[in-house]
Model the fold of this input.
Amino acid sequence: MKIYIDQPRLKKRVLLSHAASLGGFLMLMSGLAMPLFLTGLAVGSQIMVIVGILVSMSGIYFANRWVRKPRPEDSLAEALRTLGDGYSLFNYTSLPGKHILLMPNGVMVLETINLAGEFSYHNGQWKEKMNLGRMLRYLLEEHLSDPTRKARYAVEDLKAHLRDSIGLATPVPVSGAVVFLHPLAQIEVKGAPIPVCKVEKLRKLVVTKAPKLDPDIYKQISSFLEERTLQSSL
Done:
């Protein structure tokens, strides 16, 4: 399997995450120390402490997303590593679908959730069981939101791009899936509009016996997704 990712752009995001964490911490410590040396700047000290806390929390949030390993692209690559050269994984595209898998017989948008905990989908609603640990980390981690809705939107957007940007006359099979990456994630899903699975089950989901795409169409899609991955903006 081929893997595409803009490494320089990813490194910038990692650097910004570290900078925000360190910068926020330094602002916080400076705000706490300021009254010891400049007693007339109590209000400025309080403002600096508050801003420092917010910046530091933002840095931790983005560090959990871009620094903590394994990152989503690593988990996806490990789960799909035995697939042949007909499969290509495009990570962090400039499209709504940040992880897109090009297969010999179609395209699949992968909406990833990298959270530990218990998650369920019933009667069109996602729910997350909250415990003390999750509540304490809630502001520092990504949120569940509605991953099936996000994936379906990304699928429709990709279909439109393939139709309008490339000008494909023949409709291309585009599907979506929600993938839970964290090894401590527990999921219970009934009646979801698209497939939902843990990452270790993903390979079984993507390998199908559907007819293969026309080679020229496959190349056009591959070139389009590569451009939207390696030339996407920060």
In short: The chain has two domains: 2-66, 72-230.
